Every structure is written in C-alpha cells, then in structure tokens.
Amino acid sequence: GTRVASGARDGKVKIVDPKTAITQAEYTHGGGVWSVAWSPDGTRVASGARDGKLKIVDPKTAITQAEYTHGEGVWSVAWSLDGTRLASGGGLAGKVKITSIIPLLLAQHQLKYPTLSQFFLLKRFQEKLLKEKEPLLIGQSDRMDLEGMSDLKKLLKIERSKSETINPIWRLQLKGPADFVPKDADEGEQDEPEGEESARERISGWRDRCSVM
Length: 213
Known about the structure:
The chain is of the alpha+beta class.
C-alpha cells in the first residue's frame, strides 16, 4: 500500500507514507483509538475510539467530514463494499451499529461534465433531501437526467407514484440501512447480536489499529 493509517492510545490517528515513514496527516480523538479503516475508494478514513465517537476524515487534509456517536467505546470499524455505510462495534454489551453516510456523500457529491439541467437537479437534491429532509418529486425530464448520473442514483431510493396521471411522477429520498437488506432475507436473521463475542464475529479486524491503503 501507499499509505498507512494508525491509531494510538493517546487518541491520535496518523496517516503515514510506509516508504519514508513521513506523517502526511494527523488528527485526534477524545480517547484512545481502537480501530481505523480506509474507505473502499481510499478517499476517507474512518476511526473509532474509546470516547464512543466515529469520525470520517479526509486523509489528505485531516479535516473531519462527519462525526457520529456509537454510544459506547468503539472497538472496531468496517466499511461496506460500496462505501455508503459504516459498521461499528463495541461496549460491554457488544453492540453493532450500522451508520449510513449517504447524507455526507450527497453533500460532497460533484458531477463530472454535467449538463446545466443535471447541475441544477443535484442542487435540488441537496436542498430538499439534506436541508429540508423531505422527499423530492421529479417528472419525466428530470428522470432522464438522473439516468446519466449513476454515482448519484445509487444513493437514492426511487419510487414511481401510484397516482394515475398522464405525466409520471417519481418520489426520491435517501437510502437508509434497511434499503440495502435483500428482499428475500429472513427477518429473524437481522437481529443485532448480544455480547462481545458476537460483535467480534460481525466486524472483521476487531482489534486492528492499523489499516493500509
């Protein structure tokens, strides 16, 4: 790997070049850091600490992009393969939590070579779904624009209106953790495990404090 992220008992997380041992970036938690993990695309680092906080940080600037509360000390952090969710485990009860970072991804989303209508459609998404926290209704022309915005489309839950109208309407909202569960999944298998050992099994790299990208 070209970079290593490590956490320590003093609450510091360092991003280091493994060839030169030069620290490229550094940030601090309010307690000892027990787990760090790179996002699948390598653009973010997630870390969990004894203070019960999850942080998502830009590894180039060490700027905190988002912070979440697990509720108890965080022993392990893992990303979903698509980079839209974080699993965190810890505490005496061994609780596992799934946190969606889709709001962060939408807020920071940038389009490559968008048309003017796609540019304004993204602004509408950010205004309605993030600031107002309300679903957005779009028509046929917006739906066609959305087809050319695949990276953004995967963050959204899209439902066609059931009302009988000549012009179809779609209702858009941000995906939540439940929207990623397979439709044929057995609901009985979705219960959160109890106890430290169960939490260990649910999250890989339970006590790793070093992550390589």
